[in-house]
Design goal:
alpha/beta
Length: 150
């Protein structure tokens, strides 16, 4: 059975660390699709509204291609937006259509939203990228209703 795993959580909550551990443990059976890494590859890590449609399309095609080729997929982004999650599932289901008959898709959400905001802010502050992570994380937490003040 093909499997799509999506993480859900604030920046620096441990999503990518966990996803990379899963990929390593799977011995090549899992392919990982992360928007920040795609952005780094395509646009040297710079976010722009104009380029996000391309980043999204590449990610969705990647998920479809991985599932179609018989791999599982992990998408280790914040994934709070239900529309984004639905699109990822649709992309994975498209990949399943090309698998031998009887194959199905398992969808799993690994939730990191319980990691305290302070922990995320402290971890993100270690990143040397010029972003105001406290503002970004607190804004995202407010937007998506993530609790976590400890």
């Amino acid at each position: 059975m093909a499997r799509l795993t999506m993480t859900m959580g604030l920046p620096a909550s441990g999503k990518t660390t966990w996803a990379k551990e899963q990929v390593e443990a799977a011995g090549g059976h899992i392919k990982r699709f992360n928007r920040d890494d795609l952005r780094l590859m395509m646009d040297l890590g710079k976010w722009s509204k104009e380029n996000e449609a391309v980043v999204s399309t590449v990610q969705l095609f990647g998920v479809t291609a991985a599932i179609r080729a018989g791999f599982d997929a992990i998408v280790d982004d914040t994934n709070f937006d239900p529309v984004v999650r639905r699109r990822l599932v649709e992309a994975a289901r498209l990949g399943v259509r090309y698998l031998p008959s009887g194959e199905d898709l398992s969808v799993y959400v690994k939730d990191f939203s319980g990691v305290p905001i302070e922990v995320c802010v402290a971890r993100a502050a270690q990143r040397d990228d010029g972003n105001d992570w406290e503002q970004i994380i607190e804004g995202m937490a407010a937007r998506w209703g993530v609790q976590g003040r400890g």
